[in-house]
Design brief:
By secondary structure, this protein is an alpha+beta fold. It has 18 helices and 16 strands. Among the domains are: about 1-125, no CATH class; about 325-505, Sandwich (Jelly Rolls). The two termini are about 30 Å apart.
Length: about 500
Amino acid sequence: MRCQLLGLVLALVPGLLLAQSAPRRVPPPPAALEQAKRLVAEAFEKDYQAAKTPAQKHALAQKMLDDAAQTASDPAGRYALLETARKISVGIGDIEQAMTAVEALSSTFEVDSAQLTQEVLRGVAPQVKTPADHASLTRYIGRELPKVVALGSYDSAASLATLALASAKKANDADLVKQWTRRQTKLAAQAEAFAAAQAALQTLETAPTDAAANARAGKYTCFAKEDWGNGLPMLALGDDAALQPLAAQALRDDLSAAEQLQLADDWFEYAQDKPALVKEAAWRYASLVYQRQLAGLSTLSKRRVENRLAEIAATTSPLVKDEWVEILDYVDLNRHMVENLWERKGLAIMTPHPDHCKAFKIPVVVDGSYELRVRAVRISGTDTMRITLSDTANDVEFWLNSGARNISGLHRIDGQDLRNNASRTKPFPISLGRPFALALAVDRRDDAIAIGATVDGQRYFQWKGDARTLDTANDQRRQGIYIATCSSTLAVFSVQLKLKSGHAWLTE
């Protein structure tokens, strides 16, 4: 599985660059597409006849993907190659390759990528065999599910969640099973809320100021969809005696700091005894309001709010203690790129550009002890990876074979950079094009902190000291875990986090 994914990433770098520079086109007309499909069948006739095993069919589909990346001047031919590769890949249960074809189609042509993606997910599910591929299928479904829910397609969402739970079990991953069981429970509550709000939503189409309809529709929009921008005005027009004044207050743009703090307290108190769907959504909203006021609070008020934020994080976060959670899939590159260019290729996030330094943010904050597992590959260049480790007091950067591949350790301690501080260690031998696994452990106890690392299972780095001596290398890199590389191209396949103590939460 790792070799297949790496092969797809490496093979599609030229196609990635082409897709970025070309506008999306209208799909070719049916007659032209049929002609192109006949040409594909003729050109690959011998390959079709020879491809008997899944491995041979995978190679055939990859050959078509490679050709498609070089067929920019022939839209019908490119479309036919990608569509044929997609169907071959689905038939053998090759989720990575099938999704690569969908992404290439979607980046080049004006197609319904959501429909194509769901066709792939449902089509490959009966064919997937290995635990690793089942785990990949759950990741793809996890990325697609919010889009389906946002459209109100709860029947489709439920069937996808059922596929994901079944694959989580076949992946032999107990943590994944727990996570998908929780997601199914939440999805059922969202579907119930949607059904209850249908009549109200229809009423608002002809009577937009109807108080009862606004209240019911607003509750669904705020608590099930967590679309507060559209939901709060509905609640403010509604007849719910508890929610109407809260929403009206939230919509004011002239609130003082004290009034903002009181607003957060009111939302927190409102949701205390509510069902999980309402409680978690309202508390997440309260958390955003609290965080906006945190910096300006007095010591005692700040302590109170921090305790409340910790309670909210523990209740609402998908990052549960002692469970491995894939956090790379929380990255939205439209919002989380920091420097230069990164792209998604399948489940990976990669940069095909060797120039300068480039980083992306994983929107996860940890206050406590945790472990990270990162799978990646350096495709070209000398700089391997830099990771800004999350900590609410300090955000320190760990370098793995950086600075012309000859230096590793914590970037800054007591104002000293890595060339001069005690954390510096020798590089670990990592070959170009060879996937590697980096594991990091951060053990925080009051002001004492220990950071250790292994690469491919071998102990590589260990440092202990006072957390207050750790300096952030970049003041912009706060409220998240950052992956960066300089003067290199890098693909990151997976970043998993396990919370050991304290709290972890999503920042957005």
